[in-house]
Design a protein that fits this description.
Blueprint lengths: L13 H13 L8 E2 L4 E6 L7 E6 L4 E5 L7 E3 L6 E6 L5 E6 L3 E6 L9 E2 L5 E9 L2 E8 L3 E6 L5 E6 L5 E6 L6 H5 L6 E7 L4 E6 L4 E4 L12 E6 L5 E5 L3 E6 L5 E7 L4 E7 L4 E6 L4 E5 L5 E5 L6 E6 L3 E6 L3 E6 L2 H13 L26 H10 L5
Antiparallel strand pairs: 1-28, 2-3, 3-4, 4-5, 6-7, 7-8, 8-9, 10-11, 11-12, 12-13, 14-15, 15-16, 16-17, 18-19, 19-20, 20-21, 22-23, 23-24, 24-25, 26-27, 27-28
Length: 393
Amino acid sequence: MSSSTDPDHFFQTNQSLAETERKSLKSKNKSGNPIRLPSKILAVIADPQCPYEAVYVAESAGNVRRVVVDTGGKGIIYRGPTAPLTSLAIDSTGSTLFAGCWDKSIWSWSLSNRQPLLRYRGHTDFVKCLTTLRLRSAEVIVSGAADASIIVWSMETAEILHVLKGHTRGVLDLALDPSTSDLRNALAGGLQEAKVFSAGSDREIRQWRISLEKCEQLDPETPLLVHETSVYALHFDDDGDLWTASADGTAKSLSRFRNFQPDTTIQHGDYVRAVALEEIGGYVVTAGRSEDVKVWDRGSGELVSTFDGHYEEVTGLVMLQQRCVSVGIDGTIRSWGLTYEELANAKAQDKKGSEKLEAGDDVSNTRQADQGEQSGLTEEEERELEELMHDDD
């Protein structure tokens, strides 16, 4: 028996109809030079081979796609999974791509020929986050999942080296402490051990010391509790301070010299899914369920500019030098210039109201993906994805 995903085939309230109409009108805007993909985008990372030009994105259709931001080129696709992909990572040699998946496994591909490689199976629920690192001569993967566990894997064999327990709910992000990953250790043949921070929907931030032989949790009885609810994202800046993004509507800077206690709080509003740092100009960028991408002065915490373009929740941010790339549930990739001149121009346009979205905007130059491709999700899976995006708080 066939099933439909067309919302017109189902009963909708006046509120849902109005929201559908709002999104339809807003989808026509060209803010951020949108590159359109055929399904929801759940994660983004920079291409380490072209860090100022290209990104990899994880799609709900189960594909990873390499996108050149300036040209809109998106023909390099890594296929295999049939469930949504939630997270991405690349090994230290830049040769292998990894993606966490709803199917509870981690997929991998050769970056050069796009051929699938090993699959890593061990989690009992959706894989939510990934990072990679080199310990001595061995490449390892660290993953977090909705099953509240963190697993350390041998990249070469897919063997589980360690299973870390501490969180009581899903693990949403991981970040390698840069203080344990300096160049001297890397040149000496890899790290002897690494310190990894984890964030969860239990609002806790935990710290782990990882080596090939053993893992231990640091201060297990006193995790960092700096947010009211789920912590979605962790990001270390160039000074080694830890930035966080939370469902409580804030992003915070946790000072290394104050034992990772907050010294700056950004009041974004609504769920904050992502935070990124533009180090040259000293800006903090936040985004999330409000659809806006907001730029803040790092020193004062004052709002500098708001970029309005996405018409669904923003799920990821990545910096390409002085440009921020955002991705979202609306299936678009947008880029925002963060030089002083670009921000001044954006602020001037805001004052004039020229960035207000209008139904009649010309979208002929919007780069669209092949219209024959579909999201790959049934109506039930679409509802499940929406629920899972907000089940962590």
